[in-house]
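Recall the central idea of this unit: under ordinary conditions, the amino acid sequence of a chain determines the structure it adopts. In this exercise we apply that idea directly, starting from the sequence alone.
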Amino acid sequence: MNIVAVTACTAGIAHTYLVAEKLQKAAEELGHKIKVETQGSAGVENELTDEDINNADVVIYAHDIAVRGANRFAGKKIVDVPIGTAMKQPKSLIATIEKKLGK
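Accordingly, the structure predicted from this sequence is:
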C-alpha cells in the first residue's frame, strides 16, 4: 500500500514530529511505502508533491488542528484521526486501514 500522511498538533512541536516518525516506522514494518508531511511550528516540512498524492492509496490525517492545503487530497480515501490515536497505536491504525482497503 502506498500511504501519504499529514501530521499537525496544536503546539506544532513534539507530537507533530513524533507521530510522523511513528507512522513511518509502523508502515515500513508492515511492508508499506509512506511519506509524511509535517505541519509544525517550523512550517510545512517534507511537503507532499502532486505525484506523491496521486500515487497514494490512502491519506492519513493525524492532527488536532486544521490540515493546511486539504483541498490537495480531493477524491482520495482519507483516514482522519486525532494525533493521539496515531501516537499510541500507529501500527494498529495502519493494519486497520490495510484490512478496510484490502491491501
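The CA atoms of residues 63 and 83 lie 5 Å apart.
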